[in-house]
Design goal:
Oligomer: single chain
Strand content: 15-25%
Number of strands: 9
Radius of gyration: 21 Å
Largest sheet: 9 strands, mixed
CATH topology of the largest domain: Aminopeptidase
Helix content: 25-40%
Shape: elongated
Length: 290
């Protein structure tokens, strides 16, 4: 996940795609946020979900270089889509794009999301050039790209044969491959380590996660072993029958409760088989599989 001061850019996993295709209420429940009608920003943006899902299933390595869900952090509202149109090509070029709900335009959020994508891209050594396409007219999207350092290259033809304007930004001289953006918590951890905080006496250190068993974890583990291990494996990574890798899932407790309750795709729902409390316990345990 990429975080900015006001946004979360959540990489759209197969589970997210399946939820989105099932309906905005399903996706909202999985993410634990609100999703208003038209959350994708435009009918055209929403129309890419189905082919985007199929393409990701065929090429799982696209994850991270594909579609991201835009969540407004303070409002906990799904407000659009952004992302890349594939991994860097042989010349180290990647193309970016975004779609934002009309109610959230004109607030600098598109610029914030676009800059986050540009920074993410140049955080990888193989990326030498970031590009984007716009309609052939001066628009707000053009201004967003200019603010993020992309320059007008010239007219071009998109794959569908229509005229577009191409924009590009070359890798800044001396830019280092820093990888994905640090969240505030991760940055704080690095800062504390640099200041010697990690040298505190062992008696002051928190107990290891294994020793901090909550009331939900132990029964949740037993229920997980009884109902989920066949497909997910004891470590959450097995992936049988299309089961997703739980160690890489971005779903929070609420989203996992929804998935266990109702199922999605090949995953069966356990509503009626497990009590709501047991489902909460399974979801809580699955969050420990990292």
């Amino acid at each position: 996940m990429i975080e900015t001061p006001r946004l979360q850019l959540i990489p759209c996993t197969p589970a997210h795609f399946e939820a989105a295709l099932a309906g905005r209420h399903v996706l909202a429940a999985v993410l634990g946020v609100a999703a208003a009608p038209g959350w994708a920003g435009s009918p055209e943006a929403e129309a890419v979900l189905a082919p985007g899902y199929q393409h990701l299933r065929r090429q799982p390595t696209l994850q991270g270089w594909w579609i991201y869900l835009l969540v407004h952090r303070s409002e906990q509202q799904l407000i659009g889509l952004a992302g890349f149109k594939g991994r860097p090509d042989e010349q180290g070029s990647v193309e970016i794009g975004y779609s934002l709900m009309e109610a959230y335009r004109g607030q600098g959020l598109a610029t914030e999301a676009t800059q986050a994508l540009v920074d993410f891209a140049f955080g990888h050594a193989q990326v030498q050039r970031v590009t984007a396409l716009t309609l052939p007219t001066h628009s707000a999207s053009c201004r967003v790209l200019e603010k993020c350092g992309l320059q007008f290259v010239g007219p071009s033809l998109d794959p569908n044969g229509g005229e577009v304007w191409e924009w590009a930004r070359q890798r800044p001289a001396g830019a280092s491959a820093a990888g994905p953006l640090l969240t505030a918590a991760a940055a704080l951890l690095v800062f504390l380590s640099a200041c010697g905080e990690s040298k505190a006496p062992a008696t002051d250190a928190p107990a290891p996660p294994a020793a901090v068993a909550t009331a939900a974890i132990d029964p949740g583990k037993a229920l997980f072993e009884q109902n989920c291990v066949l497909c997910h494996g004891p470590d959450g990574k097995r992936g049988l029958n299309g089961a997703h890798d739980l160690t890489k899932s971005n779903l929070n407790q609420m989203g996992r409760v929804y998935m266990v309750t109702n199922g999605l795709g090949k995953m069966p729902g356990f509503k009626g088989q497990l009590t709501p409390e047991q489902i909460e316990q399974v979801a809580a345990y699955s969050l420990t599989l990292k």
